[in-house]
Amino acid sequence: MSDTSWWRDAAIYQVYVRSFADGDGDGTGDLAGVRARLPYLAELGVDAIWFTPWYVSPMADGGYDVADYRAIDPAFGTLDEAEKLIAEARALGIRTIVDVVPNHVSDAHPWFRAALAAGPGSPERELFHFRPGRGPDGELPPNNWPSQFNGESWTRHADGDWYLHLFSERQPDLNWAHPAVRREHEDVLRFWFERGAAGVRIDSAALLAKDPALPDWDEDDPRGEPNPFVDLDDLHEIYRSWRAIADEYDGVLIGELWVPEPERFSRYLRPDELHTAFNFDFLARPWDAAELRTSIDTTLEYHAPVGAPATWVLCNHDVTRTVTRYGRDDADPGTGFAFAAKRFGTPTDPVRGTRRARAAALLSLALPGSVYLYQGEELGLPEAEVPRDRIVDPMHFRSEGRDPGRDGCRVPLPWRAGGAAYGFSDPPGADGVDGEGGVDGEGGVDGEGGVHVNGDGTATGEPWLPQPAGWGTYAVARQEDDPGSMLRLYRDALRLRRGEPGLGDGPMRWLDSPGGVLSFARSDDFVCVVNLAEETAPLPAHRSVLIGSGPLDEGKLPQDTAVWLRT
To answer: What are 175-192's pLDDT values in tens digits?
Structure first.
């Protein structure tokens, strides 16, 4: 694969900065923490890091409410640190992907503040979607569009105008029909490409364009009227202009596209638009052989005509962690993922979930194209149950408390088995920063009080989200030397994937297999087999087992187990 085509089969690691590693001891992850842990990511074997937004933000939605794209939020560091991080990662063979959020900005953004101050009918308000209300006194919102975060998508300002926000009221939507909006985002792309970013991930990429009439819409309307704010054709012109800019820098554009129709999804991947897009259909499917095979076939079928590689994702910062999701019963809500199904107290079996997550790791890493790995998945972290009084995610509050929100998959990582914050806030260069040194169990008691006292007498701020009791069970330091750990499975599989000529981008063919078993070849001598059936399954003829998610049973493949074979 050429240097400019690295993205076609890359293994990309998602860093949620607030929760990865805390370098200054204040309880919030930051760029200093990431820089100190770059050797860990290099040893893991990833090709690129995708950073969730690190820009100046009030953090009303975890940084996806951006106030300034050209500055780093002080909680994370400085622009100079970001440039050094990009360079240091590249020196280790790891590229950097930054996140942009073009559908909306923060209500603290200078543009929106100016719009509120300027008043109804002003040019400043034309950068957003301000409208008078309906009803005799304008007391009703301009239309019935729902928010992606539950509830209404309009908020009324004191002067009577309403403004559109498809997410929270702290995230006003931009008007992409205005040329200034387009120019600003094109400048932002250049700003980050010029600082060494290899790619840009585009948040909510299907939502930017709106029907200018802002009509009412009911998704259950039997007339089948098209959605006036999702997947409009005007988007393609926007992304063609972005692709031209990206090509100037050999940069890559990656779309977050929740577009259910495969044919319309693939339009965004034409050669003059986005390079790749997240395949959410795969992570939404339940742990079922027929369902997963259908997703794989459909994905490859619709990527092929546009020449784009597929992507495979099991989890991200918005989605229930894989171990917890796959540990659930097959009945409602099942092992698939849907935002509408999230509720407190859903039972799960962590043993079953871990077994399936290990098998799913080998499945996803063996499929054609690129793969995304969310931080903590390589540790087998479950979804944490965050106490209600510590939840910060707006999805929870806008659901009137029904939805637990996304905080459970964003809890700070455990780096060592004991001590303050399980090593999350170990300072760069301190003992234990790479999983060595430090005395497990020393220091303050996690989750109590606002400050931890470390074994060396230094103080550590309480993590911004509480880590559950027993979080140290999953610590990096505990897993590194355990050949049966999830971390070692991912390290070994990523190493094999990088060295195996048939893996990454390229063809695959299904092999005959019993019901409930997925078996496919990626080359003349490489086969992946995954058993999702209740009974053990025979393996095809092979010379050796390259790696397995679990032990074989007298030469047969147990339930919820995957292997890579040399045939």
So the answer is: 999 999 999 999 999 999
Selection from 334, 564, 468, 427 nearest residue 32 by Cα: 427
Q: Which residues contact 234 (CB under 8 A, 6 or more apart)?
A: 176, 177, 209
Q: Which residues are catalytic?
A: 203, 256
DSSP output for 367-402: SSSEEEEETTGGGTPPPP---GGG---HHHHHTTT-
Residue 497 belongs to what H/E stretch?
helix 486-499
- Rg (C-alpha) for the chain, rounded Å, is 24
For residues 46 and 9, the answer to whether their CB atoms sit within 8 Å is: no
CB contact at 8 A, 406 and 318:
yes
d(CA 236, CA 488): 42
Longest dimension (CA), the chain: 78
Peptide bond into 333 cis (omega under 30): yes
From residue 496, alpha-carbon distances to 16, 46, 111, 142, 377 in Å are: 26, 12, 49, 55, 18
Return the structure tokens found at 503.
Answer: 């893996």
DSSP reduced 3-state for 159: coil
Q: How far apart are CA 81 and CA 87, in angstroms?
A: 10
Q: What is the pTM of this model?
A: 0.92
Q: Distance between CA 129 and CA 177 in Å, rounded?
A: 10
- What are the strands, taking DSSP E only, across 176-251? 199-202
**pLDDT tens, residue by residue, 489-532:** 999 999 999 999 999 999 999 999 999 999 999 999 999 999 99
Q: State the CB neighbour count (10 A cutoff) for residue 295.
A: 18
CA distance 27 to 451: 9
| C-alpha neighbours within 13 Å on the C-beta side of residue 179 | 0
Asked if residues 169 and 60 have their Cβ atoms less than 8 Å apart, the reply is no
Tokens linked to 304: 């092929």
Name the β-bridge partners of 509.
Answer: 521
397-406: list long-range contacts, CB under 8 Å, 24+ apart: 398/147, 398/149, 398/150, 398/151, 398/168, 399/149, 399/150, 399/151, 400/150, 402/343, 403/150, 403/339, 403/342, 403/343, 404/342, 404/343, 404/344, 405/342, 406/62, 406/317, 406/318, 406/319
Coil, strand, or helix at residue 351?
helix
Instruction: Please give the Cα distance from 426 to 461 (Å, whole number).
Output: 11
- Residues listed for the chain: 567
**What is the strand order of the sheet 561-566 is part of?**
509-510, 517-523, 526-531, 561-566, 544-548
